[in-house]
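Researcher: Sequence recovery benchmark, item below. Answer with residues only.
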């Protein structure tokens, strides 16, 4: 019995140069090698060599693809027009449906590979309906500015070659997962995968500028045994899209959203993009389930040329309803991925409630004294005073890698009773970021309000700094060059009451 049958059009295996292998021939060889490496054994892959040079019906080979465990259909304009290719697809589907079924768990036994873009309207009229809901592995990319399509092939340069091998790895991983299930559902390795896959993660669809980043995170999560949704193409009509995303979110323990420079496609009957709709539905799911975690990532200093996207970015950063229980991480993609994996590990690790944070002492109020590295010496007097008043004083972690510094900052925001932001040599942007962190605290997982929050204005002063105001915290201004305890009376009263 063949593990895999590759269905393709003869035209697509024609080489660009005489001394090169055709695209399909190379695809077959590289896929076989990668699956062998992932499975630890050689898969049985079969394809019709089409030696006659045409896509023609041949009864002798029908049984070859009917008996295959999986089918990979390599779509292209020629494939859509080929009656024989469509017949292969239909007959495999009928045969699989009559035997073990077309689905293996939540995976399809027909895998769609898109080599070359084609007319979707023509495809919908010619291909079986089953194809509409299948996620495809696209072996090309389209330049959003010029509209030019570049296939993933080393003939088109190093980037296209790199993309080709990355996509082959994704495809081989998907095939390997299904083959393992089909071959032996009782193997120990399969049982471990099933156990780890109990956690389902909603990895929201994103705009084209972040597609490679999404695929990278998806690959990482799947390699760790997690189930990733959506596992099918999202509908282009708003009502159907919301219904499908809603179902996926209900099955998921957490949601991950990637936000980039582009606003993205707006589905029919909607004025919001698919990206924004998914975030809205995810926020609503958080409102129904307090244990539902949300993570939103965007690059630091993100700005867009699209006013709609800038408005969406601002809402995420400033509107509690849009953020709604999400942890917003503005960092490099690699740091976000590491942080996400650690958060998932923490979720799966039972909490030992007997351990008490080293930064807090039962029965004593705690204050998180946030300051910039430039004010480390200047803040000492204030830190000593707070400690002498019986408070547990937390200070920022200023050394270590970026992800660790951010994680410890968030943990202290979750643990402390009150926050005092020291505004000395730091600039206004730094202070604004810390205030926004306080606003996002519920999204990080904080369940109670801070007893007291304040911004402490210390020298050096200028006209703009002296006028600093915010509705999110009390503003305390140092009188003169030295700290005076009387300025903290109100803050201390609220913190210790």
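Model:
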């Amino acid at each position: 019995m063949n593990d895999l049958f590759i269905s393709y059009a003869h035209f697509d295996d024609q080489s660009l140069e005489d001394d090169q292998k055709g695209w399909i021939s190379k695809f077959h060889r590289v896929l076989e090698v990668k699956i062998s490496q992932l499975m630890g054994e050689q898969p049985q892959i079969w394809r019709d060599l089409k030696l006659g040079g045409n896509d023609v019906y041949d009864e002798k080979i029908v049984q070859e693809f009917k008996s295959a465990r999986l089918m990979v259909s390599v779509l292209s304009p020629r494939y859509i027009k080929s009656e024989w290719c469509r017949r292969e697809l239909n007959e495999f589907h009928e045969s699989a449906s009559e035997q073990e079924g077309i689905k293996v768990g939540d995976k399809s036994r027909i895998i769609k590979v898109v080599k070359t873009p084609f007319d979707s309207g023509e495809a919908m009229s010619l291909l079986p309906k089953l194809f509409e809901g299948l996620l495809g592995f696209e072996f090309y990319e389209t330049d959003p500015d010029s509209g030019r399509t570049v296939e993933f092939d080393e003939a088109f340069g190093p980037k296209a070659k790199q993309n080709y091998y990355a996509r082959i790895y994704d495809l081989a991983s998907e095939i390997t997962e299904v083959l393992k299930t089909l071959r032996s559902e009782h193997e120990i390795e399969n049982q471990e995968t099933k156990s780890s896959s109990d956690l389902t993660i909603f990895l929201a669809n994103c705009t084209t500028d972040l597609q490679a980043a999404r695929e990278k995170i998806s690959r990482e999560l799947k390699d760790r045994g997690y189930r990733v949704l959506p596992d099918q193409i999202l509908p282009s009509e708003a009502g159907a899209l919301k219904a499908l995303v809603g179902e996926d979110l209900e099955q998921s323990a957490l949601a991950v959203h990637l936000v980039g420079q582009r606003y993205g496609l707006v589905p029919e009957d909607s004025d919001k993009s698919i990206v924004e709709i998914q975030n809205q539905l995810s926020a609503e799911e958080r409102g129904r389930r307090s244990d539902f975690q949300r993570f939103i990532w965007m690059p630091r200093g993100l700005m867009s040329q699209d006013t709609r996207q800038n408005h969406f970015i601002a809402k995420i950063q400033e509107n509690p309803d849009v953020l709604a229980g999400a942890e917003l991480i503005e960092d490099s993609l690699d740091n976000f991925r590491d942080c996400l994996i650690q958060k998932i590990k923490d979720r799966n690790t039972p909490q030992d409630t007997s351990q008490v944070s080293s930064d807090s002492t039962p029965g004593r109020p705690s204050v998180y004294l946030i300051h910039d590295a430039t004010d480390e010496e200047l803040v000492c007097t204030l830190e000593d005073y707070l400690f002498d008043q019986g408070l547990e004083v937390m200070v920022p972690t200023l050394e270590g890698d970026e992800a660790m510094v951010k994680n410890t900052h968030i943990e202290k925001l979750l643990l402390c009773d009150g926050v005092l932001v020291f505004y000395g040599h730091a600039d206004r942007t730094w202070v604004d970021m810390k205030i926004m962190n306080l606003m996002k605290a519920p999204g990080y997982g904080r369940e109670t309000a801070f007893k007291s929050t304040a911004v402490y204005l210390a020298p050096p002063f200028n006209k703009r700094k002296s006028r600093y105001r915010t509705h999110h915290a009390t503003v305390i201004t140092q009188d003169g060059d030295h700290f005076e305890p009387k300025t903290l009376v109100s803050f201390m009263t609220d913190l210790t009451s």
